[in-house]
């Protein structure tokens, strides 16, 4: 089985930086995904990490440490539209995803 | 390109009735997933298929739930009989290829059982 932990909610100001941490305990780990989900909508893909290190995509970056069972998603230059739930998900070798409960990010003016 | 298509988008039914949710994956994708999302339990995988064959149904809550994929373009999730605790948003997702590939989610079906 897999246990995935991430904070419930984070609040930050427009233009700021927010870091969402995710820790996991798992067997058969084959990578970690981050998805964004706006209220009432479907999750959409943000990033995938399978090797240790940082992956950068524009304003969003994702980091993975396999030895520590730890990942974070970094959101820079926050915009109001970034207010959403951010889901950490661990995958096994079959590509079966297990999602964390999600972190609700609230961006304030 | 059309994304994953789900129907209906909203379903309201009475306890004891049969409910059928439908999904059309992205053309060419060989994996299809059914998820359920609630406030209490988050996003849970119910079942997934590879090349129309069910691979893992360990997430299906009980015998009242069944899923089929008769061909590469269509899948159904059926609940019979439905109960109020089945109220949730049900997502279908599809993927091309291996575990590191992105899953594309449909818009979801919001099911309310009264």
How would you describe this structure to a colleague?
The complex is a heterodimer of chains A (109) and B (114). Chain A has strands at 3-5, 9-13, 18-25, 32-37, 44-49, 53-57, 60-65, 70-75, 84-91, 97-99, 103-108. Chain A is mainly β and 109 residues long. In chain A, strands 2, 4, 5, 9, 10 and 11 form a six-stranded mixed beta sheet that branches. In chain A, strand 7 (60-65) and strand 8 form a beta hairpin. Chain B is 0% helix and 54% strand. Chain B has no helices and eleven strands. In chain B, the strands form two sheets. In chain B, strands 2, 4, 5, 6, 9, 10 and 11 form a seven-stranded mixed beta sheet that branches. In chain B, strands 1-3-8-7 form a four-stranded antiparallel beta sheet, with no helix packed on it. In chain B, a hairpin with a 2-residue loop joins strand 5 (42-50) and strand 6 (53-56). The model of chain B has no long low-confidence stretch (mean pLDDT 95).
For the biggest sheet of chain B, the summary is: 7 strands, mixed
Question: Roughly what fraction of the amino acids of chain B lie in strands?
Answer: over 45%
Give, in order, the helices and strands of chain B.
Answer: EEEEEEEEEEE
| Major sheet size, sense and barrel closure of chain A | 6 strands, mixed
User: How many beta-strand runs of chain B?
Assistant: 11
From the spread of the alpha carbons, the general shape of chain B counts as globular
Which percent range describes the beta-strand content of chain A? Answer: over 45%
**Residue runs with pLDDT of under 50 for 5 or more positions of chain A:** none
Oligomeric assembly: heterodimer
Distance between the termini of chain A: 40 Å
Total count of strands of chain A: 11
Average pLDDT number of chain B:
95
